[in-house]
Amino acid sequence: MKRWRPFQAIRGSFIAKTSITLIAGIxxxxxxxxLLLIRLQQRAYELENIKHGLFLGRLLAQSxxxxxxxxxxxxxxxxxxxxxxxxxxxxxAIFSNEGVMLFSRKKQGNSLSxxxxxxxxxxRIFKSIKESGEMHWQTQNSFIFWWPIYFNLAxxxxxxxxxxxxxxxxxxxxxxxxxxxxxxxxxxxxxxxILVSTGVIVGCFLVAGIAMSFFVVRKMFRPLxxxxxxxREHTGEAGEGDxxxxxxxxxxxxxRELGQSFATIKELKDGLEVKVAERTKDLSSxxxxxxxxxxxxxxxxxxxQEAQQQLVQSExxxxxxxxxxxxxxxxxxxxxxxxxxxxxxxxxxxxxxKLLAGYKRLEEVRDIDDRDRNIAEIxxxxxxxxxxxxxxxxxxxxxxxxxxxxxxxxxxxxxxVFARQGPEKSQQADIHDVIDSTIPFIDGKLLKGVEIRKExxxxxxxxxxxxxxxxxxxxxxxxxxxxxxxxxxxTIRSWQEDDQAHVSFTDTxxxxxxxxxxxxxxxxxxxxEVGEGSGLGLGISYDIIRQHNGSINVASKVxxxxxFEVILPLSQxxxxxxxxx
Amino acid sequence: MxxxxxxxxxxxxxGARTAQACEIVAVKSGNQTPMEQxxxxxxDELHHLMPDHGVKSIEPHLFxxxxxxxxxxxxxxxxQIREARPNLILALGRDALLAVRDIRDIPIIYLLVVxxxxxxxxxxNITGINLEIPPKLQFDELTRLLPQVRRIGVIYNTAHSAMNxxxxxxxxxxxxxxxxxxxxxxxxxxxxxxxxxxxDLIWLLPDLTxxxxxxxxxxxxxxxxxxVPVLAFAEKYLKSGAxxxxxxxxxxxxxxxxxxxxxxIGGAPVSAVPRMDISGMKTxxxxxxxxxxxxxITGETSR
Lengths: 581, 303
Fold this sequence. Notes:
The structure holds two protein chains of two kinds.
Chain A: H1 6-12, H2 14-70, H3 74-84, E1 89-96, E2 101-106, H4 119-132, E3 136-138, E4 142-152, H5 159-162, E5 172-183, H6 185-220, H7 222-235, H8 243-364, H9 368-384, H10 387-418, E6 427-429, H11 431-438, H12 444-447, E7 450-456, E8 462-464, H13 466-484, E9 488-497, E10 500-506, H14 537-547, E11 551-557, E12 561-569
Parallel strand pairs in A: 7-9
Antiparallel strand pairs in A: 1-2, 1-5, 3-4, 4-5, 6-8, 9-10, 10-12, 11-12
Helix pairs in contact in A: 1-2, 2-3, 2-6, 7-8, 8-9, 8-10, 11-13, 13-14
Chain B: H1 2-15, E1 24-28, H2 33-49, E2 63-67, H3 74-84, E3 88-92, H4 94-100, E4 108-113, H5 117-120, E5 126-130, H6 135-145, E6 151-156, H7 158-171, E7 176-181, H8 188-195, E8 201-203, H9 216-226, E9 230-232, E10 244-248, H10 250-265, E11 281-285, H11 287-292
Parallel strand pairs in B: 1-2, 1-3, 3-4, 4-5, 6-7, 6-8, 8-9, 9-10
Antiparallel strand pairs in B: 10-11
Helix pairs in contact in B: 2-10
């Protein structure tokens, strides 16, 4: 546990040292100021007392000047008693100019003053007055004041008796001295009062000054304290020396770092152009390498695109093969209606030709016998050709031909929808028609044991490239029937949510392994045997749906089946991509 | 040749500065207010008395004043007077009269001079008005205002004022004068004490020994302590504590002097214009003092 050492803490803290120095300075100044103030006040008070004493002395001298001049003792009493009525005046005396005491009186009950009774002291005073003109002295307990008594001599003109004479100072004669002894009792009390009041005032000032200094130092040094705190944090408590040393060290470190930084900047600045040139050259070289690599990549990309085109073409050819196989089967079935009916139609037409030839001949026979014979032959021919059922058979055959023709026309129409040539434009299509027109192109051999269930909901027409969507549906359904291997149920559902059309294809096939389900939309990925599929079907389907701003979701469980869900926005504009076949 | 010389002299004379000349020079002992007042009144009165035009007329700008307190020394004053070439000198005060007394060819009129006899002895070009207040006039005025006053106390110095005491006694034998001789100023307070209870009034004399300005306080202290009024001879003593002042009238004095000057300028010889006493007097009562002394004033003040 770290011990708190107050003296070391103060010695280390710049703010504490400053505060203590300031307070000590204020203390010293206050004491000096107090002493000076007391001395000045005491001196001023003393001078005031002296001035007052001299005034009293002059007053006494003026009052007794006639008495001194006439040396009439009786005239001394009144002015001297009047002066003695003053509180601090304890003795008053009148002297002649030769120093002879003419009159003296002391305040009763006061024994302080012995000055005026002391001949030696008086001699010294008179000597001092004559030599230096000093008119006041002090003893331990009293002030002594002297004032000369003058008498104006009658040296003026006779006119001065009648008129006021201006400007001429009177000629006067020193005729004596008035002396006063004033007790220091009041003076001492006054000095004591000055000491106490000044001490109290300075004490208050001291307290206020110290408090103010403390707050001022605290407020003024707050920013410095923050800096010191940060310096301490930076250097740690283990930093050496006091705050100023730390600050100095930190500042020195900053200066050094700044110097180094500036040197580095200078070096960088000096080598910057060389480095820029080097870097530019390096970049140029790298740019050339990149251009070369880019060229190679472009070539490689072209080759890849070519290969991809070839693969797509192969896929198209494979799809075409499948489609041709389906189309061939359908057309074959349709043509069977026609080709099966055509021999019978030909036979019936021969019979009709024979019958019509018999009637022609009948019309040419004029002979009744021949006529009858011919009729008999016609009748026999009718029986042979089963004339009664001929037109019924004929109608049946024509119906078969019509059925075959109709089926063929529909196949051709579907084929047109599936493989439309030329530029396509997005247009509104009934998504159910697209589904229906696609189903016939599924490999018929695989469909023999597969039940197709349609659970169509109400969907508004979808703006799309119908042939491309048909291609997507065909890929999904082909994969489904492949997965079911000829047996199972393919359920096609459709519904609309918000502004999107949803179509799901649910098979009961083998399902997709979990580890590959994320790769089924990758180009060239296939689980089929070599030669059975290119692996581009679902990849192309994904691209087509993405072009439509739609999406394909897939969910599968191995052994139970797979669900593909195609989601298409109802309204959009689709531009067919170049690569789609 | 003679004509050319005369012409040149005339041209030089035409360009020459005219000399400063005065008909009357007033020489003053000082710059006191009464002297200024007297000079001003003198000029005004003389202007009224003398004709404006004619051979004997005077011009106001030909009055000059010389203050000898600013130009101490007789020779300087006399030099200035000589340069002014006056027809008449007006000497105001003792010092002014002393400064011009040696001028014998110009008529001199003095004013405001106490006891001028010694100064003008043997001079026939000097005349003037004596600065003396006749005791009779003073006591006539006093008894008119304070008829109850009978005992007059006075302190005097024989050398200065014995004549005044004698004149007073002759003029008013009905009054009792208690006159005490003071050899020095120091004696005055003690002499005043001697007068306590013996007099109804203190009479101040223009006596430098008995009426020293420093000792005046004793008179007025005596006056207040003993309720005895002081009769003074100059207005200046009113503020010190005098109850009644019977003194000369300066304007009247200046008018008297103007009349004498007019006669002299008019051609009368100085010997034909004798020295005169003051004709105009005035009495001033200090109401504050009379009230404090509880004096019953029976008449009005007069001039």
